[in-house]
Design goal:
Length: 276
């Protein structure tokens, strides 16, 4: 997720709130596309993701501020017939977590206590919804189905990446990593528990198959110029029952507002449609 650097003129590292795209604004507007081949950029675009500020990272390619696409993702072709240009509804990828009911274990590796506490809060928020998909902490000393760990990256181009994650595998397993930014410009010297938990909620949303709610126009939550993330590939599959109007409080908006954003009514419709 990204956070938009609302105080860029005052604090270079102001908190970025990517309504849950795990960035504020793109902390990497100056990213170097030269490290990604034209073929790979074409694959990213064909899957329905923006190539703007795309960059190579460990395990794949970071796109849209907080989404990691793996080589397996890029190689997969979608057979889903109902991919649409989004309005502002809830959208999912073609891959979802399978074999429900299912408990997903989550570990926290080498992060300060507030991140661990935030994981517990995030788990509580998901489990309170009575889904067929539940979360629990992994046993001490083991790596969970999803491992939460840190990276340190400062602001760039008016945005900072708050966290990143990816989408479920074709086999139906959740994406196995959530990276959280430990740079002081992301959450400050004393991170707020509710804020960190909200970003984790967003990132885990990607891990189980949610795309950004403002898929059709990331400027809705991130500001700047209009950017439609496109169609095809894992694309954006409309979740029935969710609105076709702008949804200002969704936990899956691309950029954070810097506060505590949890599930709104439409988010709950989407969660229960997919995983009840």
């Amino acid at each position: 997720m990204k956070r938009k650097n609302l105080l860029a003129l005052v604090l270079t590292g102001a908190l970025a709130v990517s309504m849950f795209a795990c960035k504020k604004k793109d902390a990497a507007e100056t990213t170097n596309k030269d490290e990604i081949s034209k073929t790979t950029l074409s694959q990213i675009s064909a899957m329905g993701f923006s190539t703007e500020n795309a960059r190579k990272v460990d395990g794949g390619y970071l796109v849209e501020g907080d989404i990691v696409l793996t080589d397996d993702n890029l190689a997969k072709k979608s057979n889903t017939p109902n991919l649409n240009i989004a309005e502002t509804e809830q959208y999912r990828t073609t891959n979802l977590v399978k074999n429900l009911p299912r408990a997903i274990t989550i570990s926290v590796t080498n992060l300060p206590q507030v991140y661990s506490d935030a994981v517990d809060l995030m788990i509580t928020r998901y489990n309170a919804q009575g889904l067929g998909l539940t979360f629990q902490r992994a046993n001490t000393g083991t790596v969970g189905d999803i491992d939460v760990f840190g990276f340190n990256e400062g602001p760039s181009g008016g945005y900072i990446t708050l966290g990143s994650s990816g989408f479920p595998t074709a086999a139906g397993d959740p994406f196995n990593q959530v990276k959280m930014n430990t740079n002081a410009a992301a959450y400050g010297a004393n991170p707020n528990l509710l804020y960190v938990a909200s970003v984790l909620q967003h990132e885990v949303g990607h891990c189980i198959g949610f795309r950004h709610t403002d898929y059709m126009n990331r400027a809705y939550s991130c500001g700047g110029k209009r950017a439609n993330e496109g169609t095809a590939g894992v694309g954006a599959v409309l979740i029935p029952g969710t609105p076709s109007k702008a949804d200002a409080e969704s936990f899956m908006l691309a950029c954070s507002n810097g506060g505590d954003r949890t599930f709104n009514a439409n988010d709950l419709i989407a969660l229960k449609y997919l995983y009840k």
